[in-house]
Request: fold
Amino acid sequence: KQEVTQIPAALSVPEGENLVLNCSFTDSAIYNLQWFRQDPGKGLTSLLLIQSSQREQTSGRLNASLDKSSGRSTLYIAASQPGDSATYLCAVKSTNAGKSTFGDGTTLTVKP
Amino acid sequence: SQTIHQWPATLVQPVGSPLSLECTVEGTSNPNLYWYRQAAGRGLQLLFYSVGIGQISSEVPQNLSASRPQDRQFILSSKKLLLSDSGFYLCAWSRREGTYNEQFFGPGTRLTVL
Reply:
């Protein structure tokens, strides 16, 4: 059974700082890994999707990496802004069609 | 472009009452559809997923059920709600074919059972 862990549960940084969010998973046999952002009381917004054959994906100030052998993914946020404050979730899609396992998320606060 | 709708946005129901939450997707055909529940401060728990009309897979045994009467419509139901059914319910879709099946989420329904 796939298990996904996100550490730390919460992170507070000053504006402008570069930061890394971590996601680890127990079963390396994955289809893809997806990073989401969730604002309070809202649905999830997809940020980046990394295929199992890929090592990283970039979108603007965001860069996500994937190391299947070690069961880890990181989300790098450059030059953080107060608007980046949200909960970030990672989800791992297993080899079984249609199923994803989510971590509990990291709640990020960027202070002005 | 594709959009996903959920309603109602919020719902307060007494224990023992029935439930019906609806999710519809526009702008795509033959999607995979998913129902998730998110408890306060927690990650998402997959409840049901569907790869086609009338095809429902249940991930967690409970008093909830799901149906897919049309290709782009997914309904979550209960005959009698429990207090533990309170939570944030999210519907999602992904393309059926290929591994590049990114999931897209709806705005969610906040359910409070009293």
